[in-house]
UniProtKB/TrEMBL annotation:
The protein's name in its UniProt record: 4-deoxy-L-threo-5-hexosulose-uronate ketol-isomerase
Organism: Flavobacterium fluvii
Protein keywords: Isomerase, Metal-binding, Zinc
Gene of this entry: kduI
Presence of the UniProt keyword 4Fe-4S in the record: no
EC number per UniProt: 5.3.1.17
Pathway membership: Glycan metabolism; pectin degradation; 2-dehydro-3-deoxy-D-gluconate from pectin: step 4/5
Entry's cofactor comment: Binds 1 zinc ion per subunit.
Length: 280
């Protein structure tokens, strides 16, 4: 079997207040995304967002069509964003090939019937990180390189949050129904991302942490601004962030993370900020 599918229900803030560490991790942490020659998918009932990873090593992998979706094929009623976080690879969509290098992205629109993943050099396997959301319109597929992305530099070393934000799949770069993806790279000496924290009732997010060096970790903060919780995370793990929750993190060294969003608007700046001194 070369695929794995998991479905997770949405839970309310009141339920989360009662959760211990194990329950928080079971509901929100996605521990395993990349296994050799396998596609892993996790469906969250927050905006029916699917987070996944495909790691072809020495065989071409087909995108599975989980029975739970009740669809003829995976992208029948969905769109998908893909970012390669491994060696060079190829995504084939309805016969058209897209070569993706490290940190390059690909958007595929609703209606793409056949989707395959493969690695160019098996000694350096590709790792395709996947975010998929429901879609009600078909937009053209598009590859996005870092040169084509919208890049913003924020923060400072003095506040330990000097970072580069690379907006890869956003409405200023590529047309989508609702999926948005980008990458935030922390500079050496900086560890905080997304601080001051915020919530946005109109969208949920998933954070994928990578380039976390050996023997280091990231502490991800979630929950309502006055009722926060934390989850310790390792390299190449993802965490589901509900629309009522803050989403911020600090690492024991610098790292990179991919943010993926879905919801009822495409306004990147749609955020309800929380003052740092008001967090509890």
């Amino acid at each position: 079997m070369n695929s794995n599918f998991e479905s997770r229900f949405a839970v309310s803030p009141n339920e989360v207040k009662q959760m211990n560490t194990e329950a928080l991790r079971e509901n929100f942490l996605i521990e395993s995304l990349f296994n050799q020659n396998k596609v892993n998918l996790t469906l969250s009932h927050y905006d029916r967002f699917i987070t996944g990873g495909a790691m072809p090593v020495n065989q071409k992998l087909a995108m599975p069509n989980p029975e739970n979706l009740k669809a003829q094929y995976f992208l029948e009623r969905r769109e998908i964003g893909i970012i390669n976080v491994g060696g060079k690879g190829i995504v084939t969509a309805d016969g058209e090939q897209y070569e993706l290098d490290y940190k390059e992205a690909l958007y595929l629109g609703k209606g793409t019937k056949e989707l395959f993943f493969e690695t160019i050099d098996s000694s350096k396997p590709a790792k395709f990180y996947l975010n998929s959301t429901p879609a009600h319109h078909t937009f053209p597929s598009k590859k996005v390189t870092k040169e084509q992305a919208e890049i913003v530099e924020l923060g400072s070393l003095e506040t330990a949050n000097h970072r580069i934000i690379t907006k890869l799949i956003v409405n200023s770069v590529v047309e989508t129904c609702q999926v948005q993806m980008g990458m935030t790279e922390l500079k050496t000496g900086s560890v905080w991302n997304t601080m001051p924290a915020h919530v946005h009732d109109r969208r949920m997010e998933v954070y994928f942490y990578f380039e976390v060096t050996e023997n280091q970790s990231v502490c991800h903060f979630m929950g309502q601004p006055q009722e926060t919780r934390h989850i310790w995370m390792q390299n190449e793990q993802a965490v589901i962030s509900p629309n009522w929750s803050i989403h911020s993190g600090a690492g024991t060294s610098n790292y990179t993370f991919i943010w993926g969003m879905a919801g009822e608007n495409l306004d990147y700046g749609d955020m309800d900020h929380c003052a740092i001194n008001d967090l509890k």
